[in-house]
From TrEMBL:
InterPro entries: Amidohydrolase, Aminobenzoyl-glu_utiliz_pB, Bact_exopeptidase_dim_dom, Peptidase_M20, Peptidase_M20/M20A_hydrolases, Peptidase_M20_dimer. Residues 204-295 form the Peptidase M20 dimerisation domain. The keyword Hydrolase applies. Keywords: Hydrolase, Signal. This is Amidohydrolase. The keyword Zinc does not apply. It comes from Sediminicola luteus. Residues 1-20 form the signal peptide. It holds the Pfam family Peptidase_M20.
């Protein structure tokens, strides 16, 4: 009986010791201890460099990392093989952390401060290898805090593929996968540390395909109808249209296929278009006009045209209730300090960008808090932000002055510079999630702000319609 009693006491003691209460400082110190592990995960994903909906290795690595930490995994969600949800806990509140992991085509680069291809199809020029890894680290850190402090609730990681034009999160929102979430957190790699109210442009994109008649371009040109003529006529009309759209709007295109040989009239050609603006209603109108231009081009060139919607995202809806909280936590964490070797690398990158040397104060300091921002790019986080209160930040993972979608961004993302900024994000996300779990009032205020900002009569309608996920858009 005495042995049984002693055994029970020891078991209880070890159990208590294994799950002793942990302060936020304890959690942050543990993140520091794991920084090398998370750095290796990010490096693996950087080397995989998998494009949208093709991120099989990247998604599997993050799934395994979370599964090994006790998260349940639901994979292949929303009809997307590389999308997944990892969850720990039960009951509410439910806090989501978003993670991305897709690379961009045509931006292969080694981790060196001069332009040097890594001989791959793609590169992480937007730092999504860091994005997914930091968010994973934060989800695990929050789980450890919940377990040690016996906190009721659920931390949920969303593995979000194909942010770069594929609108992966839109399908997840459309499927209702965020309907029970109380708050969503995200971040993005960048060239400075900031957690002000974010902004992003609404976006509609499509591939326009023209079909003509092939013929010998010299021997029988009258028998041919050039699909490339259709594309070029469309491009000319859309370029003239730029004078008659709001100045804040953006239209971009690339001709993805234009024929194979000059002496063959091309019977197929394709052009890929984006339309953007800060208000989705304006984007819808501009896109409809682009379609009319395509129809007119087909009529005028004797070709036929069809188009496939590829992506569509809402603008980003800020939530100031959450944003100031995120900012205060970023200030607590602080920025990035470079080593002598990193400074040397940074100066060389700066010279390639036209600067004399890198302004490392932008990596070390935190940008002042602002309640408004000007939008330049687009993100499918916008659709999440219209569904659940959403808040984000950016950290200095690139040399200050580096633009996104550049070889310089790829290079820094494959070094310790990127990984240091990544851990700043992981810590800030962790602290913010913990603060939200501690306060039901914050959740209530954030949700009330969401309702007020989007309007009581708001109804979510995805800009990409009811199409199935565009799983082959990068093939």
């Amino acid at each position: 009986m005495r042995k049984l009693f002693c055994s029970l006491v020891l078991t209880s003691l070890f159990s208590f010791m294994g799950h002793a209460q942990k302060t936020t400082q304890d959690i942050l110190k543990n993140l520091d201890k794991k920084s090398e592990t998370y750095g290796n995960i990010a490096q693996n994903i950087w080397e995989f460099a998998e494009m949208g909906y093709l991120e099989e290795q990247s998604s599997a690595l993050l799934q395994k990392t979370l599964s090994d930490e006790g998260f349940s995994i639901n994979t292949g969600v929303a009809g997307i093989p590389t999308a997944f949800i990892a969850e720990y806990g039960n009951g509410g509140p439910i806090i989501a952390i978003l993670g991305e992991f897709d690379a961009l085509p045509g931006l292969s680069q080694q981790a060196v401060p001069e332009k040097l291809s890594a001989d791959k199809e793609a590169g992480h020029a937007c730092g999504h290898h860091l994005f997914g890894t930091a968010s994973t680290a934060a989800a695990i850190a929050v789980k450890e805090w919940m377990l040690a402090n016996k906190v009721k609730g659920t931390i949920r990681f969303y593995g979000c593929p194909a942010e770069e034009g594929g609108s992966g999160k839109v399908y997840m929102v459309r499927e209702g996968l965020f309907n029970d979430v109380d708050v969503a957190l995200h971040w993005h790699p960048g060239a400075e540390n900031e957690a002000s109210a974010g902004a992003a442009l609404a976006n509609k994109s499509a591939k326009f395909r023209f079909h003509g008649i092939s013929a010998h371009a010299a021997g029988a040109p009258e028998k041919g109808r050039s699909a490339l003529d259709g594309v070029e006529a469309m491009d000319m009309m859309v370029n003239m249209m730029r004078e008659h759209i709001p100045s804040e709007a953006r239209i971009h295109y690339v001709i993805t296929q234009g024929g194979k040989a000059p002496n063959v009239v091309p019977d197929f050609a394709e052009v890929y278009y984006y339309a953007r603006h800060g208000q989705r209603d304006v984007v819808i109108d501009i896109f409809d006009r682009i379609v009319k231009a395509a129809e007119g081009a087909a009529l005028g060139t004797g070709t036929t045209m069809d188009y496939e919607m590829i992506g569509g995202t809402h603008e980003l809806l800020p939530n100031l209730t959450l944003q100031k909280l995120m900012y205060d936590n970023l200030v607590k964490v602080g920025g990035v300090t470079y080593s002598p070797e990193e400074k040397e690398f940074a100066d060389k990158i700066a010279v390639s960008l036209g600067y004399e040397k890198a302004n490392l104060d932008l990596a070390k300091n935190i940008e002042p808090y602002k309640t408004e921002a000007k939008a330049y790019g687009s993100t499918d986080v916008g659709d999440v932000s219209f569904t659940v209160p959403t808040v984000g930040l950016g950290t200095a993972t690139w040399v200050p002055g580096t633009p996104a979608h550049s070889w310089q961004a790829v290079a820094a993302g494959g070094t310790t510079i990127g990984k240091k900024g990544m851990m700043v994000a992981a810590k800030t996300l962790t602290l913010t999630a913990i603060d939200i779990f501690k306060s039901k009032d914050i959740i209530m205020k954030a949700q009330q702000e969401l309702i007020e900002r989007r309007g009581k009569d708001f109804k979510y309608i995805p800009l990409l319609g009811d199409r199935a996920p565009a799983l082959d858009y990068r093939k």
